[in-house]
Fold this sequence. Notes:
Elements: E1 11-15, H1 18-30, E2 35-39, H2 41-45, E3 57-60, E4 70-73, H3 82-90, E5 94-97, H4 103-111, H5 124-132, H6 137-142, H7 145-152, H8 158-169, H9 174-179, H10 181-204, E6 205-208, E7 211-215, H11 225-232, E8 238-243, E9 259-264, H12 278-281, E10 289-290, E11 294-298, H13 304-315, H14 318-321
Helix pairs in contact: 1-4, 1-8, 7-10
The structure holds manganese (II) ion.
Amino acid sequence: MERAGLPNFKRIIADSDLDGLCAAAVLKTVNPNAEVIFAHAALIRLGAMDSQIDETTAIVDLPFHENCGWYLDHHQTNRPTKTQEEKFSAKGGVCHWEATPSAARLAYDLVSPYLDLSHLDEIMPIVDDIDSGGISKEDFLADGKILQLSRSLSLKHPEHLQNVLDLLSSGVRLKELLQDKNISKHVDKAKSDRILAQRIVEENTTIVDRLAICRMEEKGVRSNGYLVTAWAGENADACCIIHGYADGTIDNPERPALSASFYANSFIENGQDRYDLSRLATSLDPTGGGHANACGCRVSKAGIESDLQHWLSLWTKREALLKTEYIE
Ligand SMILES: [Mn+2]
C-alpha cells in the first residue's frame, strides 16, 4: 500500500476529547496494531508522559514534545517554534502543524489519500464544529447524538474511550456505533448529565463586565463553554469556567486539580475572534494554553479568588491587551 508520506509509529498519544479520539481513530486505521494512550495537555506539558514518548510515538491534538516521532496538531499555543521544528526534523521527526478546525481533520486529510475513511464522513464536520466553536445555537440546544457522544468521552471512562476508538478505527459507521449497547449507555448518561449541569451553571454563574464566570469547583459536574455562553446569551463576550477540587491532582481523573477554561461566546456575532483568551490562560500558568477562542490553565497556588481577580484585571483592559492580532 502506498503510504509514502506517512511516518511509522507504534504508539499514539491523543487528547481524550472527541477531536483527539477521532484523530487517533484515523491514525489507528493506518496501523491497526498501534497502542493508543489518551491524555490531556497538562500531563504532556508537565512531563508526566515522558517515559511513554519516543521516536515511535505519534502525538496528536496535544502539546509538542521533541522526543516523539510524529507530531500532529492545530492549537496555536502548541505550535513548535521554527528552531524547535528544525531541530525535530533534523533528528527524523515529522511535524504536521496546521490551523485546521480540528486535529482529526488534519489527520484525515493526511491519511485519506491512502486509505478509505468514508465511514468517518458523517462525524467529521461535527468534530470540526465542536472543536472550533462552529456549533450553531440551534444545534447546541437540539443536543444531537454526536454532541452527547462528545461529552461522554472522559479519562474517567478509559474503557469507553477505547471502545469508541476501536469501533471508529475498524470502519464502523456512526449509526452502528450509537446502537452499540456499551456506547449508548454512556451517551444517554451524557444527555441526562447535561440537564444537571445546566442547573448548576445557572446557579453558579455571574457576569462581570461581559465575562460569564462559572464556578463549578468542588461540584463533581463539568460543563463545556457552550452551556455557559448559551445561558449568558447576548450579555457576555466570553466565559471562564472553574472546575476541579482544591485537593485534586492533575493525574487523577476522578478528582482533578483546580483548573480554569476560557471560551469565546461563539453564539454572538463576531464572538469567536475578537479576543485572544489564550493570553489569560498563559498569564499565570506557563503550562496553560490552547486556542485563542478556547483554552485553559491550572489555578495557581494563590487560589481561585486571586487568579480570577488577575484575569478580570486583564479582561477589563481587553481592548488594549487581548485584541486578536493575526499572525502571518
Ligand atoms: Mn483539538
